[in-house]
Amino acid sequence: MHCPYCQHDDTRVIDSRESDDGASIRRRRECAACGERFNTFETAEIKLPAVIKNDGRREAFSERKLRTSFESALHKRPVSVEVVDDAVRAVIDELRKSGERELPSRQIGELVMRALKKIDQVAFVRFASVYRSFEDVQAFREEIERLERDLPVIEGLQLPLLGEIGATRDKLGKR
């Protein structure tokens, strides 16, 4: 490793530690020429499949795009950063385990929807509305009804969908 200060090619490791998340190793190095110290991080290079877009283009998988998808769907929802990190990691693990060299973007979107369905029903509907290109209110209603059939609200874990909100409005005489 070259020294970032003097570009000398002889540096030695004086300390190694696992990073907080366990996904990398932090190495403290010292330059033999100038004596400066600096940190390097070592991570495993994992080859993820290329993404085949709907129009046939291929592009490298982007963890940033995956994370942005989750964050957009979960915007202003009561979900912690740790839960989002776990969901992103779970999708990446699924992609890696697939063993495929290329995957259609649709398949990745389905993995995201499966994860969002477990995390937050509102975020799931948000993502699904864009991902499945809902054309009208009826498409929203059908997806919400399907969601309510497949995954009832777990008391205290998720906020209610339309059913309980509609019942509350009926009681108040607003509809």
Question: What is the share of helical residues?
Answer: 40-55%
What is the average per-residue confidence, as pLDDT, rounded to a whole number?
Answer: 82
**Which residue ranges are poorly predicted, with pLDDT under 50 across at least 5 consecutive positions?**
153-157, 165-175
Overall strand count: 6
Distance between the termini: 69 Å
Helix and strand element order:
EEEEEHHEHHHH
Number of domains: 2
Which range does the strand content fall in? 15-25%
Describe the sheet with the most strands. 3 strands, antiparallel
**Which class do the helix and strand fractions yield?**
alpha+beta
Number of helices: 6
Oligomeric state of the chains present here: single chain
Shape: elongated
Rg, rounded, reads: 23 Å
What topology, given as strand order, has the largest sheet? Answer: 1-2-3
Q: How would you describe the overall organization of this protein?
A:
By secondary structure, the protein is α+β, with helices and mostly antiparallel strands. It has 2 domains: 11-43; 50-154. The protein has 6 helices and 6 strands, in the order E-E-E-E-E-H-H-E-H-H-H-H. The chain is elongated, with a radius of gyration of 23 Å.
